[in-house]
């Protein structure tokens, strides 16, 4: 949350908050900014809104926004009382001339001290201008990492800082969150950028093949070893070696890896002489190494050597504001390399994409767009272009809430307490699991004194 000093508040009182708001919104000339009260009546109308809709402020102030904007679909602003925050919702509007206008709607609700909806501030950006903004994102990415999410921005900050050192890094994140992309960014930001960057998935090979691939072997070490083979450690000399899914490394190989980390040397399979190398290790896993140590599947001393600097990558479901950004990045990439050119996403398809939980994270999102380009036609991605699971009726988490309460297994207060505990007190996570907004959860907590 943004903060301000007491001096800023005093400055606001001197200048006048209305003037500051007006100046700030005038800076956003690429779209319309307006404010509504609890009844949905327009209280503020920016110059950008006048320009976009061709409506002067004196013609819309005091009117319901659904009337002033001639919404082509049900768009009751008071729905914000439940959602609290809306990001990149696609809406269909009309200018006074009758011309259709597709916009991205971002809105934030405000609540009084008693929890009652008090109004909202909204921003409407024309789809054409939004697409133009999205088309420039490749040049703004950090070695292919594209994000506006604070947690990802913090990870990027750590990457920049730790890249200047030789510290070993452990990247934690679910499958598809971009762990190899982060490892490569670390390499490119380091002094080793001119040397090799090699990667291996420790879960993809059998223990014998993995040992040979990592450390190499000498001629005659085993049946089929017809010549000497330089392993990844030797080939990555001077550069970086990325060990993906390091938690899957067999115990016997963990001891050998520990020696490389401690002594910067190893003995190839079947060899008798140590080879000295200069390699930086970056490891990644979707599991907790501490839990693996407790279960006896991972060496504790190796865990401490690997996780000198841990970097945590949040799943895409927690990076809500990045979904739209990544969708358009993928669309622009396909636009450049295929016969189909997409410049819009149908509102119902966009809502389904933004509401999706993305269990496969960024990898799944890329696959969905590739599917849409393969099966669809035309300049817009529609519901028919999305994979079958997106076209099924979404199951609301309210189903769990309703069934548990109606069956008598627990009352609403008990369920809220249980979900809050499982979410470690994180209100946004708990509200999402319960299928309600943060504002609704806040009111229910107050009601049940939780």
Verbal overview:
This protein is of the alpha/beta class. The protein is built from 23 helices and 14 strands. The protein has helices at residues 6-15, 17-26, 47-53, 57-60, 65-68, 80-83, 127-134, 137-140, 150-162, 179-189, 207-215, 232-235, 251-263, 289-294, 300-306, 320-337, 347-355, 361-375, 388-391, 398-406, 412-422, 427-434, 438-448; strands at 32-37, 42-45, 85-94, 100-111, 117-126, 169-172, 197-201, 240-244, 265-266, 275-276, 280-285, 309-312, 344-345, 380-381. A 5-stranded antiparallel beta sheet has the order 2-1-5-4-3. The longest helix is centred in the last third of the chain and has 18 residues, at 320-337. The chain is elongated.
C-alpha end-to-end distance: 24 Å
**Spans with pLDDT under 50 lasting ≥5 residues?**
72-78, 135-139, 395-400, 402-409
Helix content, binned percent: 40-55%
| Largest sheet descriptor | 5 strands, antiparallel
Q: What is the number of strand segments?
A: 14
How many whole angstroms does the radius of gyration measure? Answer: 27 Å
Q: Strand-residue fraction?
A: 15-25%
Number of helices: 23
What would you call the structural class? alpha/beta
């Amino acid at each position: 949350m943004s903060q301000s000093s007491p001096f800023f508040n005093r400055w606001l009182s001197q200048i006048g908050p209305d003037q500051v708001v007006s100046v700030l919104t005038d800076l956003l000339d690429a779209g319309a900014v307006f404010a509504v009260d609890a009844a949905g009546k327009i209280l503020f109308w920016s110059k950008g809104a006048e320009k976009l809709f061709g409506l002067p402020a004196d013609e819309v102030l005091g009117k319901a926004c659904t009337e002033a904007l001639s919404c082509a679909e049900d768009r009751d602003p008071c729905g914000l009382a439940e959602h609290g925050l809306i990001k990149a919702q696609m809406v269909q509007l009309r200018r006074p001339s009758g011309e259709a206008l597709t916009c991205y709607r971002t809105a934030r609700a405000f609540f009084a001290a008693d929890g009652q909806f008090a109004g909202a501030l909204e921003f409407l950006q024309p789809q054409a201008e939004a697409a133009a903004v999205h088309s420039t994102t490749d040049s703004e990415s950090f070695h292919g990492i594209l994000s506006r999410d604070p947690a990802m921005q913090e990870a990027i900050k750590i990457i920049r800082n730790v890249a200047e050192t030789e510290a070993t890094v452990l990247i934690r994140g679910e499958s598809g969150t971009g762990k190899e992309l982060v490892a490569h960014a670390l390499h490119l930001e380091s002094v080793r950028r001119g040397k090799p960057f090699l990667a291996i998935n420790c879960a993809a090979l059998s223990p014998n093949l993995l040992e040979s691939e990592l450390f190499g072997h000498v001629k005659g070490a085993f049946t089929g070893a017809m010549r000497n083979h330089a392993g990844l450690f030797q080939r990555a000399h001077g550069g970086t070696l990325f060990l993906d899914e390091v938690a899957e490394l067999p115990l016997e190989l963990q001891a050998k890896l520990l020696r490389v980390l401690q002594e910067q040397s190893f003995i190839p399979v079947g060899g008798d002489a140590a080879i000295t190398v200069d390699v930086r290790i970056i490891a990644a896993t979707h599991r907790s190494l501490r839990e693996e140590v407790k279960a006896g599947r991972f060496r504790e001393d190796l865990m401490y050597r690997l996780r000198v600097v841990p970097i945590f990558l949040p799943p895409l479901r927690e990076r809500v504001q990045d979904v739209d950004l990544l969708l358009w990045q993928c669309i622009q990439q396909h636009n450049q390399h295929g016969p189909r050119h997409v410049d819009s996403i149908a509102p119902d398809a966009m809502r389904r994409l933004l509401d999706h939980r993305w269990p496969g994270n960024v990898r799944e999102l890329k696959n969905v767009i590739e599917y849409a380009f393969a099966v669809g036609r035309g300049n817009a991605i529609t519901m028919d272009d999305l994979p079958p699971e997106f076209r099924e009726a979404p199951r609301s988490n309210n189903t769990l809430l309703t069934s548990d309460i109606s069956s008598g297994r627990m009352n609403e207060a008990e369920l809220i307490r249980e979900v809050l505990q499982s979410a470690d007190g994180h209100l946004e996570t708990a509200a999402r699991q319960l299928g309600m907004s943060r504002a609704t959860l806040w009111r229910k907590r107050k009601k049940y004194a939780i």
